[in-house]
Amino acid sequence: MKLQIGRVEGDRVPVVQIGPTIWGERLMHRTLMTGRVRLTYGQITVDSTGEFADLGECFAGQRNGLCGAAVAGKLLLMTGLHTGTVGFTAELHDHEPPVDDTWEDIVEASYRPLARPTLSGLDSSDFWKLELELVDYRGRYSGLGLDAGRQAAGPMDDEPVVDRYLLQFWPARPAPDRVVKESSKQAAYWHKFAREQPTPAELAVRKQEKARQDEARRLAERVAAWGGALPSEQLVRAPNGQELALLDRALVDALERTDSQTLRLIARWAARRACEEAEYVGNERVAAILDRMDRGADWLETLNGPPRAVAPGAQASATVHQFVTQAYGWFADRDPFDNTVTVVTATFNVEAFSAAVETIWLATEPFDDKARLLAELRERFLTTTDS
Q1: Which of 205, 240, 263 lies at the terminal end of a domain, its last residue?
Q2: Contacts with 369 (C-beta within 8 Å, 6 or more apart), sequence order
Q3: Each residue of 42-74: b (16+ CB within 10 Å) or e?
Q4: At 76, which CATH number?
Q5: How far from 264 is each of 113, 134, 167, 273, CA to CA, in Å?
Q6: Do 201 and 334 fall within a single domain?
Q7: Terminal Cα distance for the chain, rounded
Q8: Is 190 found in the same domain as 118?
Q9: Are 39 and 188 in a shared domain?
Q10: pLDDT tens digits along 273-305
């Protein structure tokens, strides 16, 4: 522990320093942090929110442009230096300290942390936890050398800083921000910027309008992405539902109004039409799969044929299933059997609507004119449905 006792001069109280705390001149203050702060874009934050706020928000409705306090729980402090390190000290006082006129630019604003605040330069990994209570404070931000800092190229770590800053807190009721002293061109620039910003109320209205416009844009984009109308939950779940909706949304809407039995028939018909268009039906293996599908066999039997008969007294051999991983879809250069398996498997989707949608989309692939398949489907199954 460091103990220093200064001499008494006249009726002044001796200064006693224990660690970072100083009593003297009938005032007490504690140094919260002091050192070099690395930053970019000439910005230092004191933040207890962890949330982003842009420059305009921080200075909304203010007179001063050096200490932005318009966002609850946050201070945005502007410096002269754009990128590099500045000298910085933060202090906590019991009462309002006297104004030190040796600083060139001085501003004040009210601040109430929402949690233990952190001080850091923008884009810097260095930070300092400030021991402030969750009460109302007045903050005085003083700067020296802002114009020189603006012109400087940022000091190296072993070089002296160009501009220095002091941030002082003391308990006080909230009050409007103010400019105590203005000397630099940089301060004048930022004060002008702050006074051009909307008030918090005006900013809130603008944000609400922007949010409304953003939501309207997102809605319009979603409508366009689904063929002109918002999708139902059933359509969202359906494999290739969005693709088919973009191709023919009216058809998809008609399918949603169709009963499950008809949807199963549509799926099987579409699978067969795809194989016919691709000229697979002359393939005995493909033809057998399609026939078993139409008879209503289960998935494994449809693809593999009926299980082999076991002779009386013989022991049935174990069934071996082999799963092959391949790219999903119908491809012109793929083996006919593989394309058939893909499109027929789609007809077995647990949900009849999903089975119809997925199979129809896959079945359009061998058609040069996809609309021809959809027209045939309408004529065969949906003549009494408004599609």
Answers
A1: 205
A2: none
A3: bbbbbbbeeeebebbbbbbbbebbbbbbbbebb
A4: 2.60.34.30
A5: 63, 65, 74, 14
A6: no
A7: 86
A8: yes
A9: yes
A10: 999 999 998 999 999 999 999 999 999 999 999
Looking at the domain assignment, is residue 11 inside a domain?
yes
Spatial distance between the Cα atoms of 168 and 67, rounded to a whole number of angstroms? 12
Q: What is the pLDDT of residue 1?
A: 35
User: Same domain for 272 and 369?
Assistant: yes
What's the pTM value of the predicted model, to 2 decimals? Answer: 0.62
DSSP 301: H
Contacts of 1 (CB under 8 A, 6+ apart): 18, 19
CA distance 213 to 194: 26
* DSSP labels, 169-216: EEE------EEEE--SHHHHHHHHHHHTSPPHHHHHHHHHHHHHHHHH
135: helix, coil or strand?
A: coil
- Does residue 315 fall inside a structural domain? no
Task: Flag whether pLDDT at 62 surpasses 70.
Answer: yes
Number of domains in the chain: 2
* β pairing state of 164-171 and 84-93: parallel
Beta bridge partners of 125: none
Residue with tokens 């549509």: 266
In terms of domains, do 151 and 257 share one? no
Same-domain pairing of 247 and 193: no
pLDDT in the model for residue 318: 64
Same-domain check for residues 43 and 181: yes
Q: Are 346 and 358 in contact (CB under 8 A)?
A: yes
DSSP category for residue 122: T
φ, ψ for residue 87, nearest 5 deg: -80, 135
Q: State the average pLDDT for the chain.
A: 90
CA separation for the pair 152, 239 (Å, rounded)? 60
Domain that holds residue 80: 3-205
- Tell the residue number behind the tokens 């030190």, with chain if given: 100
